[in-house]
């Protein structure tokens, strides 16, 4: 559990768990800290993929199926134990959606709420277009790939940090391209509410398709900022208040 999940503040009496899925090239350092900001009703888990942080010595995951299987097998007991919600940002949105589909199909488990951020809906033409992009072998074209997959945001100035981020991002981009959502799975698979967030200065995402993926309500919020708008304190505060209210309404 500790290998896969970062939980900075355990809350055994929490009513619900929020499972967070980070964006490409990143780890758990930002989203795991939300555990200190939510009240005692919500316990936050942040997913840590191989090849980073405490899993630095492990090889990067080769396909999304293996990622989904690991997350599901490690967390199944906790997901059966009490209600849960998912938050995914950018690449993390697709990962969270893949896990949610697997849980629903194999175990009949469904989040009380899906919070999706800065990503095309997986039933859109824009999503399929990004999936078909040929990734470059070198680092020279990586900036273009980051703009396509990651949206508009400032990159680290530190050379070592940039190199590490670029390597991890490229591996996550390869992982993203192994995502496969069958049309049969897309036939209104969920009944929970879905909320979609994005940054006003980010690129435009095709997000309306989320409405077709649940029989529940779907809402959309645009917050000021670029692709990493969620790191702004004011936006972070809005997200936490909104997600707390939505989770409590879904219980």
UniProtKB/TrEMBL annotation:
Residues 17-244 form the Thioesterase domain. Its EC number is 3.1.2.14. Belongs to the thioesterase family. PANTHER family: S-ACYL FATTY ACID SYNTHASE THIOESTERASE, MEDIUM CHAIN, THIOESTERASE. Pfam families: Thioesterase. One of its GO terms (biological process) is monocarboxylic acid metabolic process. InterPro entries: AB_hydrolase_fold, TEII, Thioesterase. It comes from the Eukaryota. The lineage of its organism: Eukaryota, Metazoa, Chordata, Craniata, Vertebrata. It comes from Agelaius phoeniceus (Red-winged blackbird). This is oleoyl-[acyl-carrier-protein] hydrolase. One of its GO terms (molecular function) is fatty acyl-[ACP] hydrolase activity.
